[in-house]
Design brief:
alpha+beta, 8 helices
């Protein structure tokens, strides 16, 4: 029997695939990714500031909330890998978030409380072989993104580290629900193993940056509701139309990965450019796109509205075009969306999964 949402089989509890999934989840919990979370959070906050966020309230959800808040390591009180939901004022000045007074957040179903929500969803990098477990994680991550958006004030920003299945799954229903609430400013797909260098925790992870849409404002941002199937190395695989339009936002080389108990999967193989540098380049372009679309955290402010110079970037495929991987995916030259300047890689020369969200 296969999962209704994915082509993977659902196995009995005594099957080796279930044991492999349990081992991977155990290793995820007991392998710290705090250093990687800190790196990603630093770039998230650089992007948030560049989009015009100067103050307000923030909510941090999931593993390593102090790192997600941008706090320097020396000032953190929690052990690495601890999961929680914390809230605080957003510091108004300085890139380093010194003196952040974090307090526990108890969900109270009051929408629009926070100007920034940063989500680190549970088990995002685990490779699930069992279709039921994979579908369960997908549903939990969709729910976590939607609830994070509900807590975000109109014009506020949500950044989410989630499984690649959130954008890639065939069912567009959850993504359509997200699109009702928010515009996707951009996404960066981290290569397998970016968070934890351990077998079974090497699934690609997506960083999503969304802006909660004020009432009455038309939809904008990047396309992301549909996923497309195509052949890569003669293997049928599927990914989001977002990465079909912007292959350069995958921070590595797309390859197929054989699976022991199911069909091959699309994964992202790291290349020679450090993640720190690659993520900085990608988020900088996402910020430029958002400013060009007028989708900043400060509506109608001088210099960041629609009168700002907009990058020329094709957001759709032409009539009659067919889904398929860009020709530049073959070999090491993967190509980018036309508006994106080449990144350097294209030039020569003990852990807790966090709360159930």
């Amino acid at each position: 029997m296969t999962s209704p949402a994915f082509p993977d089989r659902s196995f009995p509890m005594d099957h080796p695939a279930i044991e492999a999934d349990m081992v991977a989840m155990h290793d995820h919990r007991h392998t710290s990714a705090t250093t990687a979370h800190s790196l990603v959070a630093g770039h998230i906050w650089t992007a948030i500031r560049a989009l015009g966020m100067t103050g307000g309230r923030m909510l941090l959800r999931g593993t390593d909330p102090e790192a997600l808040a941008g706090m320097p390591e020396a000032l953190r009180a929690s052990r690495p890998g601890q999961g929680d939901q914390l809230q605080a004022d957003i510091p108004r000045r300085g890139k380093r978030h010194l003196g952040v007074d974090l307090a526990a957040f108890v969900p109270d179903y009051m929408p629009g409380q926070f100007d920034v929500v940063v989500l680190n969803a549970s088990y995002a990098d685990v490779v699930h072989h069992d279709g039921t477990l994979r579908e369960s994680r997908w549903q939990e991550h969709n729910q976590a993104v939607l609830s994070s958006l509900s807590y975000t004030a109109p014009g506020g920003l949500t950044a989410a580290l989630v499984s690649a299945d959130v954008l890639d799954a065939p069912d567009p229903g959850p993504r359509r629900a997200m699109a009702v609430l928010a515009d996707l400013l951009g996404a960066a797909r981290l290569p397998g193993g970016s968070l934890r260098k351990v077998a079974g925790c090497d699934s690609p992870v997506d960083l999503l940056l969304l802006r909660r849409r004020p009432d009455g404002q038309p939809r904008g941002g990047a396309r992301f509701e549909t996923s497309v199937q195509f052949l890569l190395d003669s293997v049928p695989v599927r990914h989001s139309e977002y990465f079909q339009d912007r292959p350069g936002d995958m921070l590595g080389r797309p390859v197929t990965k054989p699976m022991p108990w199911g069909p091959p999967r699309l994964t992202i193989q790291p290349d020679m450019v450090p993640l720190d540098q690659d993520l900085r380049t990608t988020l900088s372009q996402i910020v430029r796109n958002a400013i060009g679309w007028g989708l900043t955290a400060r509506p109608n402010m001088p210099g960041d509205g629609r009168d700002a110079q907009s990058p020329t970037q094709a957001r759709g495929r032409g009539p009659g075009s067919t889904p398929g991987p860009p020709a530049s995916w073959s070999g090491s030259d993967r190509g980018r969306a036309p508006a994106r300047p080449p990144s350097p890689r294209e030039m020569p020369g003990p852990d807790h999964p966090g709360p159930q969200l």
